[in-house]
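Possible regression after last week's pipeline update?

I re-ran a chain I had predicted before the update to compare outputs. Posting the input and the new output here so someone can diff against the archived version. Not blocking, just want to make sure nothing changed silently.
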Amino acid sequence: MTRTATPAGPARPGFLWAVPAAVFFGLFAVVPLVMVAVLSFAHWDGLSGPEFAGLDNWRTLLDDPVMLKSLWLSVLLTALGVLVQTPLSILLGVWAAGHQRNRAVLSAVYFVPMLLSIAAVSVLWRAVLDPNLGVPAHAAWLFGDGNLFGSQATAIGVLVFVSTWQFTPLHTLIYQGAARAIPQVLYQAAQIDGAGTVRQFFHITLPQLRNALITSVILMVVGGLTTFDTVLILTQGGPGSDTTISAFYMYQKAFKSFDYGAASAVALLLVLVSTVISLVVVRLSGYDKMRSTMEGL
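New output (post-update):
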């Protein structure tokens, strides 16, 4: 495994350095994806052998109102997650980038939800928000009848809140690292010019966080479209099918209806939608044209 030298810069790692990662990615990402794509054109109940079905699974899904509704709900939950988590993460990340001791202690406590599994967090909030034994049962003046899972609006609100509570610390950490990398000379020059804290935030901090912002948004989009555990434990797709997002719909098709062909079609559709949205974000932001000063090292 040698390093190849380039005329304009330092030597680059040889191709062999990428082989272990390429093999791992091929076995655990490319091969399963190809198998899912093949199964999306077959009928398979998980017991007998798969039978080629052509476009039957796709036609059925496109004619299923629950499937179309689930796709819309997935996009809606993802959009709400981005709109809520992004400003919170930016503000908390910039604040946590300070060097005061109290900020370090509070940041360490705030990052605790990031250490918990999605299942544990969902079980915790299911108990806290239980309409009979949880907080809503003892605060009717705030929660009304206390059943936050009884209507679509409140159930979606719970899902957004729980996801925000758990994943905002991750994105805060991204912004914290990016904020600490901003050269202090920019703020010193702004102070000399008479710029206050607010102007410094909007004219220095936010523009310098552009790369971190796009990375964070892409992670939110992919994570939001593939959310499953939270819905399974908190709402189980209810009330009715009002929170049945695509990932949960895929689970129902595969493990309740034993229609693995249709479930594979849903999975492939989610991959395509996630990829398209991510590419659109990258293209519109101009992120694909950016270059790192450490490229090639």
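Follow-up from reviewer: compared with the archived run. Strands lie at 3-6, 9-13, 42-43, 51-52. Marking as no regression found.
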